[in-house]
C-alpha cells in the first residue's frame, strides 16, 4: 500500500487501527454518497505516479509525468464526483532529510 510509506510515520496505521471503518475498498460501480469537495495532497500522488514501485529507475518526460498524475486524479474524480470543488494541495520539494529517508 503506497500510503503506508508517505506522510507522517505510522499515522496512517494508527488512524486505521483506531477507526477501522475509514478504510474501505472503493470501485467506480460502488454506490457512493454525494460529496461537495475533494481535497488531495498531491505529494502523495505525484511521487507514486512518477516513480517505480520496486525502486528501479524509470525515465519519464515531463509530459509523461503530467499525464500520469492527471490520469490518477481523473480516476479519483470519476469515483468521488465532487459537486463543487477539487482542491489540489502541493507544498513544494521535500526537505533534504525527507529525501534521504
UniProtKB/TrEMBL annotation:
GO MF annotation terms: 5'-3' RNA exonuclease activity; RNA binding
List, alphabetically, the InterPro entries matched: 5_3_exoribonuclease, Xrn1_N
Q: Which family does it belong to?
A: Belongs to the 5'-3' exonuclease family.
Give an example GO cellular component term for this record. Answer: nucleus
Official protein name in the record: Xrn1 N-terminal domain-containing protein
The highest taxon in the source lineage is Eukaryota
Ranges where the Xrn1 N-terminal domain occurs: 6-101
Pfam families tied to this protein: XRN_N
- Give the GO terms filed under biological process for this record: nuclear-transcribed mRNA catabolic process
Amino acid at each position: 500500500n503506497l500510503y503506508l510509506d508517505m506522510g507522517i510515520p505510522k499515522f496512517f496505521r494508527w488512524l486505521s487501527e483506531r477507526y477501522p471503518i475509514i478504510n474501505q475498498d472503493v470501485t467506480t460501480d460502488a454506490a457512493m454518497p454525494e460529496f461537495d469537495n475533494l481535497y488531495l495532497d498531491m505529494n502523495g500522488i505525484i511521487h507514486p505516479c512518477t516513480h517505480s514501485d520496486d525502486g528501479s529507475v524509470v525515465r519519464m518526460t515531463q509530459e509523461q509525468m503530467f499525464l500520469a498524475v492527471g490520469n490518477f486524479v481523473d480516476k479519483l474524480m470519476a469515483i468521488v464526483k465532487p459537486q463543487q470543488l477539487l482542491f489540489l494541495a502541493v507544498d513544494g520539494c521535500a526537505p533534504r532529510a525527507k529525501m534521504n529517508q
